[in-house]
Amino acid sequence: MRLFRKKDETRKSIWKKMVDLALTDVRVLATGMDDESLEELEERLLAADFGVPATLRLVEHVESLARRGKIRGGGQLREALKEEVARILAEDDGPGRSTEGVELAENPGDGPTVYLVVGVNGVGKTTSIAKLAHYLVQQGKSVLVAAGDTYRAGAVKQLETWATRVGADFVRGKEGGDPAAVAFDAVEAGIARGADVVIVDTAGRLHTNRGLMDELRKVDRVIRRRLEGAPHETLIVLDATVGQNAVAQVRAFREAAELSGIILAKMDSTARGGIVVALRQEFGLPVKLVGLGEKVEDLDAFDPQEFLQGVFDGER
Ligand SMILES: Nc1nc2c(ncn2[C@@H]2O[C@H](COP(=O)(O)OP(=O)(O)O)[C@@H](O)[C@H]2O)c(=O)[nH]1
Ligand SMILES: [Mg+2]
Q1: Which of 57, 192, 216, 256 has a CA positioned 20 to 30 A from the CA of residue 13?
Q2: Nearest-atom index, ligand 1, CA of 127
Q3: What is the CATH number of the domain that holds 235?
Q4: What's the total number of domains in the chain?
Q5: pLDDT in tens, 140-163
């Protein structure tokens, strides 16, 4: 399936916000790439959540161009940065990446497409599931959501309320019950009811919790066993406002599940877009969807071109 980007004011302001960071205000560096300028560039990139590996790569790139006399002014510096970030974002492009939107993998065979959604507490998993379900229902798909977060009081109810609101089918487990059993029941129900898509919510206590990772492994295994090729996407939801913490979260969850992409929630609440680049540089994992608010419509496909423009060509 393909999620086309929404053209509205909300989205415009998001990309503009990133520009507010003044990353593009490189005029100070225009006098020549001395060590001080490079240090300042490094500081700015780190402050914008680009993370150490991506920052070093970008600074080295700029330095080497400058040494060869290829960067003489702010404009050239900006272009050099933009090109290198574009290169990072384009690396390891999996199937379904395009500048127009994101294609989430689908089940090519019989049975439903299954998406497993993971991430720590409070990042926006349940809300993102509601948004994705809403989008899919709007596309005419029959969607079933499964309340795999059986730990947190209210988590089941929260998903049920969303499901009812967006017109998705709903599978619950017993409170305090086994999340893997819920996942199994959900895939089973999806097959029996002929659902197009099954989305499995999960618990997200701290990623330092070994029990959680063991449990996720079990959920993943149960889904695999019940339906060949499933889960078709394992999406980790990250909170865009937590900076480099997001990198640590991906590292932890990667141990338990084969992540296929990122949903970056709360992009409306941050002006630092560098995390997108940090995640790509470190894991080669694409941001597929971005959360832009608390309403069901506030989900969008990540568009690398628009991202680049927002960060480097925005109004100054
Ligand atoms: N501003 C904003 N808030 C969000 C977004 N996504 C989720 N939230 C809020 O973040 C909080 C936690 O969300 P929830 O989906 O329950 O997180 P979960 O614990 O990971 O399932 C809720 O108050 C949501 O409304 C987003 O894209 N933007
Ligand atoms: Mg939740």
Answers
A1: 57
A2: 15
A3: 3.40.50.300
A4: 1
A5: 999 999 999 888 778 899 999 999
Measured CA to CA, the distance from residue 198 to residue 189 in angstroms comes to 9
Residue 11 near residue 310, CB atoms below 8 Å:
no
Residues 207 and 236 sit within 8 Å (Cβ to Cβ): no
Percentage helix, strand, coil, to 5, in the chain?
Answer: 50, 15, 35
Q: What are phi and psi of 175, to 5 degrees?
A: -65, 135
Residue nearest to atom 19 of ligand 1 (CA): 122
CA distance 181 to 177: 8
Helices 35-47, 51-67: axis angle to 10 degrees equals 150
Asked if residue 30 belongs to a domain, the reply is no
- Asked whether the beta carbons of 296 and 5 are under 8 A apart, the reply is no
> Is 221 a member of any domain?
yes
**Could you list the residue range(s) of the whole structural domain that residue 111 is in?**
106-259
pLDDT digits over 31-75, tens only? 556 777 788 888 888 888 899 999 999 999 988 988 888 887 777
197-216 tens-digit pLDDT: 999 999 887 545 678 888 99
Distance, in Å, from the CA atom of 179 to the CA atom of 256, rounded to the nearest integer, reads: 15
Strand order in the sheet with 143-146: 169-171, 143-146, 197-200, 113-118, 233-239, 261-265, 287-291, 299-301
pLDDT at 27 over 90: no
Where does residue 67 rank: exposed (0-12), middle (13-18), buried (19+ CB within 10 A)? Answer: exposed
pLDDT band of residue 20 (cuts 50, 70, 90) is very low
pLDDT for residue 101 is more than 80: no
User: Phi-psi category of 250—alpha, beta or left, where left has phi over 0 and alpha has psi -120 to 50?
Assistant: alpha
**Ligand located closest to 149 CA:** 2
Which residues sit with their C-beta closer than 6 Å to ligand 1?
Answer: 119, 121-127, 204, 237, 265-266, 268-269, 291-294, 298
